[in-house]
Amino acid sequence: MKLTSLLATAALGLGLATAAVAADKTKVGFVYVGPVGDGGWTYEHDQGRKAVVAEFGDKVETVYVENVAEGPDSERVMTQMALDGADLIFTTSFGYMDPTINVAKKFPNVKFEHATGYKRADNVSTYSARFYEGRAVQGTIAGHMTKSNVVGYIGSFPIPEVIRGINSAFVHARKVNPDVQFKIVWAFTWFDPAKEADAAKVLIEQGADVILQHTDSTAPQAAAQAAGNVITFGQASDMSEYAPHPRVSSIIDDWAPYYIARTKAVMDGTWESKDTWDGIGAGMVGIGEISDAVPAEVKAEALAIKDALADGSYHAFTGPIKKQDGSDWLGEGETADDGTLAGMNFYVEGIEGDIPQ
Amino acid sequence: MDLSAINPVLLIASLMVAATPILLAAIGELVVEKAGVLNLGVEGMMIVGAISGFAITVESGSPWLGFLASAIGGALLSLLFVVLTQVALANQVASGLALTLFGLGLSSLMGQSYVGIKPPQMGKLDIPVLTDLPVIGPILFGHDPILYLGIALTAAVWALLKYTRVGLVLRAVGENHDAAHALGYKVVRIRIMAIMFGGACAGLGGAYISLIRVPQWTEGMTAGVGWIALALVVFASWKPWRALLGAYLFGGVTVVQLNLQAAGVAIPVEYLAMSPYLITIFVLVLLSRDKSGAPASLGRIFHATH
């Protein structure tokens, strides 16, 4: 209690001081889970940060901290950022959820933006992208492209975001190829190139000729390239250095417009807590160029799905879809609501294995 | 569950690859500790070796030059530890930790322009008849040369420590540096050479990750392998073959647990993920029940006037 009030007073004092010194400069902090050079998730967030700098120039000051472990350590980093006078802090990984809420309580005047989480407060917004829409496109390509009918999937953590992606990819792969099987390996890390490479190699040894990844490094791409006849998809970033083969397409996160809009809102004083969840239509999820390794008709089909997802005429989870245990989830033509998607903790029918609890 | 999807031959072949970085680093550290020096900077030397090797391989196009550079890079960084602990007589634990932190930072700096680049590949051993043999071909004769270097180095270190005068002197320095000094051996000089050997081995291990196992450069890519190597040396009771066993066990369980996951075995993933650590510690603790302890002078500072 004592510490909290002390911190709050310090923050208030600091806030006043910085307001007096640099009233016209907005300070924006970013907390990253990996290095900015990961070529994937964190890289794209940093591109968003750079876009903020390019947009506002001298009116904004950005700071970032890389490789912040999820959990208590992140709380320390955020507290330090807030004490240093940040007006807006983006915390860019799921595991920062509770730390963000905790720190936000201590600094009511600092705005927080937490990526991919679901806990909000008066000064905490959440934002995420509908990556599962991109997974629908990947699943379609994967279903067509696999010859062994085994698709390998490297999961990071068993959280709704990742499970949604697996389900979406599986539903669409099955739609075009009823024989397809998914083999899923949980890496329990967002970023560990050696572990990701091992996981990819194991999946390839067990017959997978398509690798989907929900981890952030390009190591699985390199493993697939070494194996030769395996295709992959870029994750979070385009990973185009592995195109046209093994990387045949990608999901690209584009955070720049959102980061610019939210920084602007803080400058204007119009910032308020809200939940943003945008997909292909709004441009937050991009589909990287589908390479020539994919036959033209498959490419056309994938692009058609992408367009339908973008204009809203098709939802990635459209019934009939059953849950893994065979119970009904979505009826004919029914689409999933955001609440269920946000908390998704079950596999759809046909996926083997259990979600780690 | 479909265990038949696991191919035991490929499994053994890939566990050897997974174990090699740990083995190289552990063998180097073993020699350092046998000389009575505790260098906790293995992780830092590995990552600097990883980027040195990667950068030189990309620039020169030759993985061999890259591996040479990684050994030199690791050894150079260990010189910093030499200056701190052997010349300035600083605390070895603190200096080692500092070396790791410094190495991680330095490697990020060195690697700025190498992110996302693909290195030239080192060819695998390909002996016409032998490599094509079923089962033993892929396991024994289908690897890259550095993997064999790791095993050869283990054998060499074992023979050196056990049978040669050099090994005896090294052990004497590690067990009782005052006595060794009294006998006229140059304690500091011997330790410096041991530390540099350890640095070179750690560098090689790091480059094995960035050039062969992954292969690419990303910041922080050694991801704790150096610490595992350090622990392995202790659990292996400072014996080279046990370090090899431990490394293969660790690499093996790591690969097996991924295989079991992919095959859909109904063991909770969390248990599988912690299994490499548990099994390796368990086996090596069992093995180390004999009374072979740490080198007596391990971590103690030596100065001729004391």
UniProtKB/TrEMBL annotation, chain A:
<dbReference type="GO" id="GO:0005886">
    <property type="term" value="C:plasma membrane"/>
</dbReference>
<protein>
    <submittedName>
        <fullName>Purine-binding protein</fullName>
    </submittedName>
</protein>
<dbReference type="Pfam" id="PF02608">
    <property type="entry name" value="Bmp"/>
</dbReference>
<feature type="signal peptide">
    <location>
        <begin position="1"/>
        <end position="22"/>
    </location>
</feature>
<feature type="domain" description="ABC transporter substrate-binding protein PnrA-like">
    <location>
        <begin position="25"/>
        <end position="304"/>
    </location>
</feature>
<keyword id="KW-0732">Signal</keyword>
<dbReference type="InterPro" id="IPR003760">
    <property type="entry name" value="PnrA-like"/>
</dbReference>
<dbReference type="InterPro" id="IPR052910">
    <property type="entry name" value="ABC-Purine-Binding"/>
</dbReference>
From TrEMBL, chain B:
<feature type="transmembrane region" description="Helical">
    <location>
        <begin position="245"/>
        <end position="265"/>
    </location>
</feature>
<keyword id="KW-0812">Transmembrane</keyword>
<feature type="transmembrane region" description="Helical">
    <location>
        <begin position="135"/>
        <end position="161"/>
    </location>
</feature>
<dbReference type="InterPro" id="IPR001851">
    <property type="entry name" value="ABC_transp_permease"/>
</dbReference>
<dbReference type="Pfam" id="PF02653">
    <property type="entry name" value="BPD_transp_2"/>
</dbReference>
<protein>
    <recommendedName>
        <fullName>Branched-chain amino acid transport system / permease component</fullName>
    </recommendedName>
</protein>
<dbReference type="GO" id="GO:0022857">
    <property type="term" value="F:transmembrane transporter activity"/>
</dbReference>
<dbReference type="GO" id="GO:0005886">
    <property type="term" value="C:plasma membrane"/>
</dbReference>
<feature type="transmembrane region" description="Helical">
    <location>
        <begin position="37"/>
        <end position="58"/>
    </location>
</feature>
<feature type="transmembrane region" description="Helical">
    <location>
        <begin position="96"/>
        <end position="115"/>
    </location>
</feature>
<feature type="transmembrane region" description="Helical">
    <location>
        <begin position="220"/>
        <end position="238"/>
    </location>
</feature>
<feature type="transmembrane region" description="Helical">
    <location>
        <begin position="64"/>
        <end position="84"/>
    </location>
</feature>
<keyword id="KW-1003">Cell membrane</keyword>
<feature type="transmembrane region" description="Helical">
    <location>
        <begin position="6"/>
        <end position="25"/>
    </location>
</feature>
<feature type="transmembrane region" description="Helical">
    <location>
        <begin position="271"/>
        <end position="288"/>
    </location>
</feature>
<keyword id="KW-0472">Membrane</keyword>
<keyword id="KW-1133">Transmembrane helix</keyword>
<feature type="transmembrane region" description="Helical">
    <location>
        <begin position="192"/>
        <end position="214"/>
    </location>
</feature>
